[in-house]
Design brief:
Elements lengths: L1 E2 L4 H6 L3 H6 L16 H4 L3 E4 L5 E7 L4 H8 L1 H10 L4 E7 L4 H12 L5 H10 L1 H5 L4 H11 L4 H8 L2 H18 L3 E2 L1 E4 L3 E4 L4 H12 L1
Parallel strand pairs: 3-4
Antiparallel strand pairs: 1-5, 2-4, 3-6, 6-7
Helix pairs in contact: 6-7, 6-9, 6-11
Length: about 210
Amino acid sequence: MSSYSLRRRDVLIGGSAAALLGLSGLGLGASSAFAASDLETALAPRTIGNPDAPIRMAEYFSLSCSHCANFHNGTFKDLKKDWIDTGKILFEYRDFPLQGPAIYAHALARSVPVAAYDGMLDILFKQQTKWTTAPDPVTELAKIARIAGIGNDAFVAIIQNRPLLEGIVAIAQEGYSTYEINSTPSFVINNKTVIRGDRGYDTFLAELNKLAA
């Protein structure tokens, strides 16, 4: 598990001016997918599954967390097949960025069309090592943004969108204050039970079977 260390000040001033200026050399075209100007839509809950499902599971995750990537590339696939796709669980993604570059990744994911959100998460997790370990993570994220049709000007607007960044931090702070979330991934089931870490499918199965009984 990765521990929570992000502060509001880290988010708002994270990244260097040199990194931002360096984006101009990428030659990205104008964006047709940028939607962060609609703040309400950008910060709306991101869920998958049956809205009327008897079980609700929220995951607090960081796109820079290797344990979160392991969960999404492994256990999550079983949960989705057995519980989400069968209508038993409504699953919600909740932002919990752990470091400066991660907040930009979360902002990027929330700035693509809602229908493309899951796909952007998948890309960011699969390329996690590449952008988190790069000398200039912001420029690497700009390259990923190109996949979604987000050009240079739109990407810079995303990472400089203070209300969007503050809204993402507020989601994390709500998890910290309400459920004492301080590491990722952490899962809240039916607003009550908290499971911390990528515990493997059996751990989730034991708890979910109790609720489904």
